[in-house]
Amino acid sequence: MADNIKVLISEEQINKRIKELAEQISIDYAGRSVHLICILKGSAFFCCDLAKLITVPVTMDFMSVSSYGDEKVSSGRVRILKDLDESIQDKDVLIVEDIIDSGRTLSYLTDLLATRSPRSLNICTLLDKPERRVTDVYVKYVGFEIPDEFVVGYGLDYQQKYRNLPFVGVI
Ligand SMILES: O=P(O)(O)OC[C@H]1O[C@H](OP(=O)(O)OP(=O)(O)O)[C@H](O)[C@@H]1O
Ligand code: HPA
Ligand SMILES: [Mg+2]
Questions:
Q1: Where, subcellularly, is it found (predicted)?
Q2: From the CB of 101, is ligand 1 less than 6 Å away?
């Protein structure tokens, strides 16, 4: 396998879990529409695959945020590279992330977006690395809990590489 990357979560496991998450979200948002906020770049694959399987009406917007740069640890400073295009006022907003690690990114984002008067605001993350948390965040939908290892693939990068791997692996 390229650069000795060990599979942690296979493509089949990811697809199965995304289906389950989409079913749960479709039940929870029944009778409403859900406004997905995709946090670029990491969440691009997950958010698009999830959106395709949700059966209630979906709208989407994109925000680009970065704090890791080329490192394996957070710089501690969350930078917004691109803000949302549309207002989230009175919308049922679901932030879609690839991973919650230290919790800094999502803590910063939920505080920021809460000031913009959404009707509701929740988080869906594919991966959760609870051992690394330095900031508490309430996450409603979690795909997989993973151990304290730096992972790549299915959107996640190391030095901008490996995002296109169809599985989640450890370098
Ligand atoms: O919980 P945290 O410690 O804040 O880490 C999680 C965040 O870090 C990664 O983004 P990154 O800054 O690497 O940007 P990218 O998505 O463009 O790779 C990841 O995609 C999450 O957004
Ligand atoms: O384990 C990780 N891998 C890639 N990007 C990340 N950003 C936070 N944690 C990670
Ligand atoms: Mg990254």
A1: Cytoplasm
A2: yes
Closest to 100 measured CA to CA, from 45, 141, 158: 141
CA-CA distance, 139 to 158, in Å (whole number)?
24
Pocket test residue of 73, 96, 105 for ligand 1, highest count of atoms within 8 A of CB: 105
Residue 83 pLDDT > 60, yes or no? yes
Whether this model's ipTM surpasses 0.95 comes out as: yes
Asked if residue 47 has its Cβ within 6 Å of ligand 1, the reply is no
CA distances from 101 to 45, 127, 135, 146, 148 (A): 18, 8, 9, 10, 9
pLDDT digits (tens, 9 = 90+) for 132-170: 999 999 999 999 999 999 999 999 999 999 999 999 999
Pocket test for ligand 1, best of 64, 65, 79 (most atoms within 8 A of CB): 65
Q: What structural domains does the chain harbor?
A: 12-149 (3.40.50.2020)
The span from the CA of 137 to the CA of 159, in Å, is: 26
Tokens found for residue 57? 């009406």
pTM above 0.90, yes or no: yes
